[in-house]
């Protein structure tokens, strides 16, 4: 069994910062791409940031220059540092990862349970 557990969400004023963490646990051989998504009320889930196992990153235009994704492969953990937060960043943030459970298995996609981020104006 594999689990992704997010933490670090909360309420912050506009212009503030938060750091999200997502730890993968269970039977894990390797983790490929790790990502952060978000879903605001009444909107579709959207990709926020992606990081490969080699550290290559990609960001949604709406967060470029404000958010930074990073990972600690030894801890099977991905982070999202969010600075200069805006009310439109308010959403439930989800962690996503492509994980291989054994050396001979295919990678499967896993989701965390989500963590709420609320930015007040």
Task: Describe the fold and architecture.
- This protein has 121 residues and is mainly β.
- Helix content is 0%, strand content 58%.
- The protein has no helices and eleven strands.
- Strands 2, 4, 5, 6, 9, 10 and 11 form a seven-stranded mixed sheet that branches. A four-stranded antiparallel sheet has the order 1-3-8-7, with no helix packed on it.
- Strand 4 (30-39) and strand 5 form a beta hairpin.
- It is elongated.
- The mean pLDDT is 97.
Q: What fraction of residues sit in β-strands? A: over 45%
Cα gyration radius (Å): 14 Å
Number of helices: 0
Query: What is the ordering of alpha helices and beta strands?
Result: EEEEEEEEEEE
Form type: elongated
Query: What distance separates the N and C termini?
Result: 40 Å
Mean pLDDT score: 97
For the largest beta-sheet, the strand count, sense and barrel status come to:
7 strands, mixed
**Which runs of at least 5 residues are low in confidence (pLDDT < 50)?**
none
């Amino acid at each position: 069994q594999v689990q992704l557990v997010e933490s670090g969400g909360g309420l912050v004023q506009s212009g503030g910062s938060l750091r999200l963490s997502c730890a993968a646990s269970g039977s894990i051989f390797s983790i490929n791409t790790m990502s952060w998504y978000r879903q605001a009320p009444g909107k579709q889930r959207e990709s926020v940031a992606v990081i490969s196992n080699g550290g290559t990153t990609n960001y949604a235009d709406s967060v470029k220059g404000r958010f930074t994704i990073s990972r600690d492969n030894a801890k099977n953990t991905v982070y999202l540092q969010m600075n200069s937060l805006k009310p439109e960043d308010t959403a439930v943030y989800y962690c996503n990862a492509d994980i291989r459970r054994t050396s001979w298995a295919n990678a499967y996609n896993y989701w965390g349970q989500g963590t709420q981020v609320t930015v007040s104006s």
